[in-house]
Every structure is written in C-alpha cells, then in structure tokens.
Amino acid sequence: LKPLIPTQISKHEIKKEEKTSEQTNPRRISSKASEILNTWLEEHKDDPYPTTAHKQKLSQKTGLTVKQVKTWFTNRRARSSLSEKRGAFKKKISDLIKEKRPPSIL
C-alpha cells in the first residue's frame, strides 16, 4: 500500500453521515434541475435540440455543467425513442394476438 500524503484523506476516513448526496451518488442530478430540463424539453418537443446558447442558459439555471446538460438531452432523447419503439412493438404483438395469426416478420 502506498502511504497517504498528510493532506490526502482516504475514502474510509470520511464518515458515512458526513457525505452529501452529491458524494454518495455524483451521477444523479437534482430533482429541481431535472424539472427545469423537462420543462424546456416539453416546451420544445417539436425541436428537442437546444442550441449552444440554450445549453449555457440551462446550465446556469440548473447549476449543471454545459456537458451535463448536453448529456441529459442526449440520454432523454434516446430513452424516449427506445420507449416509443417498445410501445410500437407491444402494439404490433397485441394486434397479432387479437387477430389470432402467427407473426410473420416483426
């Protein structure tokens, strides 16, 4: 084991109750930031791609970095697209079951 430099603190020295929510799960954004981003997305659902200026403004409003804002929108659009595809697939299967015919090509 490498000895710690006196100014370094190991993870084990930080008591669990002293950790903030950001330290325990640094990947989660606050519900307030999420609400701000979701509101913007709902208002711009016809074009869900914020400009650089919009990302900077959202970054300031949410306290996130511009990169975090960009990543949030990328993930949200991907999840939305995946959800829509799953819904269409389930509907197709449901329709086939109702018609009582075997699936040819899904």
Name a few traits of the molecule.
106 residues; mainly alpha; 4 helices; elongated
Provide the gyration radius in Å: 22 Å
The proportion of residues in beta strands is: under 5%
Silhouette: elongated
| Estimated structural class | mainly alpha
Secondary-structure element sequence?
Answer: HHHH
The count of helical stretches stands at 4
Spatial gap, N to C terminus: 56 Å
How many strands appear in the DSSP assignment?
A: 0
Main beta sheet, described?
Answer: none
Poorly predicted ranges:
none
Rounded average pLDDT: 79
Quaternary assembly = single chain
Helix content: 55-70%
Give a verbal description of the structure.
The N and C termini lie far apart (56 Å). The mean pLDDT is 79. The radius of gyration is 22 Å and the shape is elongated. It has helices at 21-24, 31-43, 52-62, 66-99. It contains four helices and no strands. With 106 residues, the protein is mainly α.
